Amino acid sequence: AGLATALNVFIGYEKAASVVKESQRTGKSIKETALEKGVMTEAGWRKLMKPKNITAPSDLKGLIRKGSPKK
């Protein structure tokens, strides 16, 4: 569920919840599910999942403004 919190900033609560629920239902990874559903790009996923971006205080919304993976 920790990834859902990070995804929420990028794709919104409803899409993040949908991705997590489908991931749990299908047994696929959250990344695989998000990419298949088209709610994030591979580039957006890589940017979000940089350890610096998800472990230290940072402006995740600023990442969005610099190249949004949001659709």
Number of separate strands: 0
Low-confidence stretches: 67-71
Helix content: over 70%
Oligomer: single chain
Order of helices and strands: HHHHHH
Number of helices: 6
Largest sheet: none
Structural class: mainly alpha
End-to-end gap = 21 Å
From the alpha carbons, calculate the radius of gyration and give it in angstroms: 11 Å
The overall average pLDDT, rounded, is 81
Overall 3D form? globular
Molecular structure report:
- The chain has 71 residues and is an all-alpha fold.
- 70% of the residues lie in helices and 0% in strands.
- The chain has helices at residues 2-11, 13-26, 30-37, 42-48, 51-55, 60-65.
- Helix 1 crosses helix 2 (13-26).
- It is globular and about 30 Å long.
- It starts with a helix and ends in a 6-residue tail after the last helix.
Q: What topology emerges from the helices and strands here?
A:
Layout: H1 2-11, H2 13-26, H3 30-37, H4 42-48, H5 51-55, H6 60-65
Helix pairs in contact: 1-2, 2-3
Descriptors:
71 residues; mainly alpha; 6 helices; globular; disordered C terminus
Give a nutshell description of this structure.
The protein is an all-alpha fold and 71 residues long.
